[in-house]
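Colleagues,

Please find the record for the three-part complex below.
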Amino acid sequence: MSLPDDLLAWYDRHARALPWRVPPDARQSGVAPDPYRVWLSEVMLQQTTVAAVRDYFRRFTERWPTVEALAAADDADVMAEWAGLGYYARARNLLKCARVVTAQHGGRFPDTREGLLTLPGVGPYTAAAIASIAFDRPETVVDGNVERVMARLHDVHTPLPAAKAELTALAAALTPQERAGDYAQAVMDLGATICTPRSPACGICPWREPCRARAERTQAELPKKALKKSKPVRQGIAYVGRRADGAWLLETRPPEGLLGGMLAWPTTAWAEGAPEPAPPAEADWQDLGAEARHTFTHFHLQLAIRVADLPHSAVPTRGEFLPHDRFRPAALPTLMRKVHDLARATFRPD
DNA sequence: GAGCCGTGGTG
DNA sequence: TCACCAAGGCT
């Protein structure tokens, strides 16, 4: 038995049951995955855990069962449905991609890695994942799991990201011509359930015998990674205003950059040091005395909160009033939902 | 190559 | 409390 065969045999017994996955037995009986569902799941899973993705995947596929349905959706509806999942450029690219596939490819996803790479939001990993999982092409997927598994299997001590090319070559050398889709998912399942970042379960690993790191007892320290930079602290002020009729003053953030395209409370700029106030409407803004703390990828944020009852005649300089019955806190990104949770108690119950 | 871009779980 | 981490892509 070869290494890939050993892994596939393990996968046949231990594959995780996932909503977007065709299990190995069904697959070998000729059931083909739906490329739309494979693509959607892979985009959602970028830097995101399976546990976080499950409910989002279910809601998206119920609401938009096909790529054509998604392509026809309103941008704001898609952004609201994505709210809380993070990395919102993914949602913007998701729509772009659905519209390209619908308008330029007749609603069918390209079935090669090269074709898939031309799509918005589809990079080297996702293109290989869709090509292998949806179309059974022998492409090599290299995600964080595969990097970790290869670094341990071959005892590679070069730190990431410099080691990326080396680990990719090692992974490619193992990729089988047959059952490419199952193999791709098998390596990732191995990384997610056995060859985990901390406390890997080497004793029950199908690759425990050939694993070089296990032999050298270096598995816990691999893969090596470059030191991370510390995060600076930025500060700002969020303005939560409500009109007497219950409408909230909200804005849609600019399409690019942090939380781009998302519904949000108007805020000052976020910078190191005390923020310059920038209220979105003339009113008696009161400091809430509590702040929302949130950590983004590259900085910590401390967001002070100011609240105001706005007169019906108020003309905001930014944002617009969203009627009470059309406002869903779930449509806010998490930071803005935290702000709402802190501020809501200060207003009369609706 | 490196910075930007979210969030929730975990030790 | 806090740093680390997860099926990356774009610029």
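Chain A has a mean pLDDT of 95.

Comments are welcome before we finalize the supplementary table.
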